[in-house]
Every structure is written in structure tokens, then in C-alpha cells.
Amino acid sequence: MRAACLARWDLCSPSSFFQGSLQASGRAPRRASSGLPRNTVVLFVPQQEAWVVERMGRFHRILEPGLNILIPVLDRIRYVQSLKEIVINVPEQSAVTLDNVTLQIDGVLYLRIMDPYKASYGVEDPEYAVTQLAQTTMRSELGKLSLDKVFRERESLNASIVDAINQAADCWGIRCLRYEIKDIHVPPRVKESMQMQVEAERRKRATVLESEGTRESAINVAEGKKQAQILASEAEKAEQINQAAGEASAVLAKAKAKAEAIRILAAALTQHNGDAAASLTVAEQYVSAFSKLAKDSNTILLPSNPGDVTSMVAQAMGVYGALTKPPVPGTPDSVSSGNSRDVQGTDASLDEELDRVKMS
């Protein structure tokens, strides 16, 4: 008899009952009526589960995880709700977009039971209700978008579906955490058209990029030519400045050299026999100039007595003497008039000499 009592106690113990209920039900979130835990007075509720208890057919309380004690016969465990996050596959369905394109779309729904009382008494099957609500909401949201926006605004579409589900499932005690679209299938013809559109868009971008490259190249070439012209003009300007500075320096150097030569010549003429040296120099220059008459032109002008070097030298020395005659102190006008008369006489004699050359 003692053995029979021990066997009966083992069958009625909470641990043996919990293991048997788990094996019979398979999973805790949704148990059939025949697989619900039995009232054994002392019960142990697992973590993240809520057991709804009815007393005499009316809601009594929700058992918390851990040790709980119930009254036999009067109390009955009516529902077992899982408080974990539940993943539900939304079956594939057809939906029509704003531009009348039929799509085959499916998704995944993530939800959690926030109020076990509402989930038990607010709806008959919470998971089925949420799944149907997700499908209808998905079709409604897709009908507001065109085909291109469906792919571009996938995240906003998921957020819109979650908001719509939460508004409708609030009275069921269920909270939709997120919704993700898994696959979107388009008709074959539409897929071909989309592929052609993608290829055309790529060709357009390639053409635009090529034209932009050509434009940038032309701009760079023009900018290079502009910089080259600016640098060339600056170089030419610097060259002209340097050349002008060189010519000015050369002219100044020649003038200084000539002034120095004239100064030395003047000093030499004031020495003894300076007139004779000047006559010799004039005679040499006359002979040198006379020897070059026929080299530059066929027309030759000769004096009436080309062989009379002495008269030419005397005439040149007379001009030189008239120009270098010392002025009489106190009579500048007489000096200037005398010099002018000598110069005029010399010019008249030179004009007469040229006339004789022309006549000859």
C-alpha cells in the first residue's frame, strides 16, 4: 500500500506533471485544451510564461513564474501564453501597386505578447489574427506606392506596416516589434522592362560622364593655353625690358667712351704739333672714304680734283680752325657772327665743290 501511495504521489508531483505536459504539448506558447497543465495544487510556472487561471469558469488571476498554489476543482488553467518574442512567417501573397503591377511578396513578423489577459480573451487566435492583419496591411500599403518606390522605400514600407499592426493589435495585448519583407517577385515581362531601364540608365550615366570628361578636358586645355600665353607674354615683356636696358647701357657706354675719346683728342690737340696730327688723321679718313665710294652703289660722286688731297685737308682744317677759334673777351656777338660767317663761307665753298662735281 505504501508503494501504491508513492507511485500516486509521483504522478501527482509538480515536476512529473510539468514534464508530462511539455511532452504532450510540444511547446508552451500554444497548447490545445487537452494539453493544458492540470491543477495539482502546487504548480511551478516556467520563466517567460504566463498561465491564465479561471475560477469556476471566470477569470481569476495570472500565475507568475515560480511557485504557485491553486484550489483543486475550483481553479483551472485555461490559457498558457509565452512572453518571449515570437517569429511568424507571413505567407506569400499577391499585391497590386499604384501603377497596376502585380507583385508576389512575403515577409517575417516579430511580435511579443504584452498583456496575457487581452491576448487570451481579446481574440481567439492571436498569431493567426496578426498574420492576417499583416497581409491586409501589406496589400494596402503597396497599393499606395509605385513599383519603383516599392524597392526604394522598403524601410518606410516596413515601418508603415508595423504602425498599422500596432494600432489594430493594441486591444489584443500584442506588440509588433518589426516587420521585414523577405522577397519581392515581379512578373517576367516587368523584370525584362526593369532590366532594360537599368541598362538605359547606365548608358545615360556613361554618356553624361563621358561628356563631363570631355568638358573638363577642354577646360583644362584652354586653361593651359591661357597660362602658356600669359607666361609667353611675360617672358617677351621681360626680354624687351632686358633688351632695352641692354641697349640703353650700350648707348650710355658708347657715349661715355666717345666723350672720353673726345676729351683725350682735345687734350692731344692742345699739345705740340697737334695740328699736324689732326691733318694727318683727316687725310687718312679722306683716303679711306674715297676708297669705299664704289662698293655700296653704282652712282659715284667725285670732286673736281679727287687727287688733290692737300686742298681737301686744308679745307677741313679751315673748318676745324673756324670752329675752334677762341672768342674775343667781351664781344660774344662778334664771336658768334664771325664763327657763323666762317661756317657759311665753308658751306658755300662745299656747295661750289659739289656743283663742280655734278657738272663734271
Question: How does this model look, in words?
Answer:
The chain has about 350 residues and is α+β, with helices and mostly antiparallel strands. Among the domains are: about 40-80; about 85-185, Tetrahydropterin Synthase, Chain A, CATH 3.30.479; about 185-280. It has eleven helices and eight strands. The strands form three sheets. The protein has a three-stranded antiparallel sheet with strand order 3-2-5. Strands 6-7-8 form a three-stranded antiparallel sheet. Helix 4 (about 125-140) crosses helix 6, helix 8 (about 275-290) crosses helix 10 and helix 10 packs antiparallel against helix 11 (about 330-360). The protein is rod-shaped. Keywords: Mitochondrion. It holds the Pfam family Band_7_C. One of its GO terms (biological process) is mitochondrion organization. It is found in: Mitochondrion inner membrane. One of its GO terms (cellular component) is mitochondrial inner membrane.
